[in-house]
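Much of our argument rests on the idea that a fold can be written as discrete symbols. In the encoding step, the backbone of a single protein was reduced to a row of integers, each denoting a local shape. We regard such an encoding as a compact summary of how the chain folds. The record that follows shows the chain in one-letter code together with its fold in token form:
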Amino acid sequence: MPQGESPRDQQPPSVRDRLAAMRPDLGGVLRSHHAPGFRHKQVLQHLMASTGVPFAANTSLPLCLRTALDACGHSTLRLLKQQDAADGSSKLLLACADEAHIEAVVMRYPRRNTVCVSSQAGCPLACAFCATGRAGFRRNLTPAEIVDQGREAAALLGREGRRLSNVVFMGMGEPLLNLDAVLVAIREFSAPDGLGIGRRSISVSTVGIPQAMVRLAEETPQVHLALSLHAPDDRIRSSLMPVAKRYSLRQVLDATSEHFRLTHRKLLVEYVLLQGINDSPVQARQLATLLRGRVVTVNLLAWNRVEGPFRPSPPEDIQAFSEELTARGIETVVRAGRGQMVHGACGQLAAHR
């Protein structure tokens, strides 16, 4: 970016550049056929408007171009398995072209329909209470592999007469360690000729990568930020989340302050309660002190069981923790989990068949 130029001052990318960023293989086909700009637009529109419909069906494109495009494939993902839960959630197990497996979760609510997308195949951060981190890391996902999770969700909901309205980057991986691809995906999710999801309906969750948090605010200030905190001090946090040994709570919270200065958006703080580790009234008071004066909502979550030594906090302890925060002026929500029955809840995604 030129010095002194803000992202809001930049011209939006052309359709040609958008397609090249998301699907360089398709962009290469169009270049090799010396296709004019309007063909790039036709291909992008076809790509975003349908899932599983081959380019051969698009008779507005020349036959030779349709054949070459179909050789690349319409989607970067293949649906291996769909598991539906009684709570209105569906977990999608998806295979990439190299057989890396990822998962996305569709959640249906009375007034919205949300997809939780993955940004990496696995996760390099190895948080102790998370199945994804315990499963190891394979690679970053491409922009198309992220967007195609949204397309799969939109197609599933469309068959039910529903519309995809929200996207949360809370699936497998740390989005801010793959920020370039995530930013491209956000652009395509929100583009009117993409999935048409408003950026205010998109949330990105992070363990706290300070420089990337600021860049996210600079490049897409409308998107919401969620911070996975999980402890009120560095000692406990670093025992649960190895990344905390690199970035202290002070560094992370300073980055959230800069994020708020740039966006004026409330921060969502995610806090998974683990019995006997981070759920005492004293720790609730420490958390309230840590967050005092910040524009935040604390989202308290019961730990979703995966292999490991932890136990979820009892409901009465969660309620007591919530009351301690509320009494000190911290807006607090106890979140009802979704997807546990299909191992599709927070911290349970591990891409197993």
